[in-house]
Fold this protein.
Amino acid sequence: MRASPWLCVISLAVVAGCQAPPLGSGASSSREVAPPPTSGGFDYQLGAAYQPATPVSVVVRDSTAPPLDGAYTVCYVNGFQTQPEDSERWLDRPELLLRDSDGDPVVDPDWPGEYVLDPSTPSRREGILEVVGPVITGCAEDGFDAVEIDNLDTYVRFTDTTRGRVDPRGAVDLATSYVELANEHGLAVGQKNTVELGDAGRDEIGFTFAVVEECAAHDECDRFTEVYGDHVLQVEYTDDLPEPFPQVCSSTTRAPLTILRDRGLTAPDDEEYTWEQCPD
């Protein structure tokens, strides 16, 4: 998910924080943790999983979909907000949800039905891991190569007590626990957006690569490639292009694997479907 246009910056000292211990969930994997390829085809299939018309070397799919045979497949996990279909399950754990000044659970206004999680204390982070951890380990069991943990940027988007404030240190500690758990099971972890992290995403949390939406639209692609080099998966959308896609592709700051997709991330049989990739 793309953050709101306004941003805040937190220092390395804040994002480093003190790290909460990861939640173990059985025997660790002997699989080597490896970043995605930096060449070949790339597709972003969160709206629907389908067989690409042309071969791809990297694809991102939801955790409920199977990995794509023959491709490095990244598993999407919503790690800092709830999925709408899981709302009732999370409401059974009300202590894990962020609250506004009236004591009501905070819902992301841009994504109706998604409650924001509260990682502010060790006990809350442990509770969140009890729910999200099995999704991550399930990605490994299903044969995915990596996970993309979405909505880390809630600490940027929810910053005041009136509408709900996500503790930055708690968010980073939870992210670190997600990375440690995933790595234990042979999965690399991609930083999703959250340009404010800078080097700390790689050096303090342990992300291996980045999955970035609309960095061309927000003129920040170089801030990701400076940290992760070629290991950046860049997605731009048809409804928010800053310039024609060929010009995006000609930029010296764009990632090697850069694609243009429709906002709904639909399948090829949908009239809104769009997929284009910058040439190697």
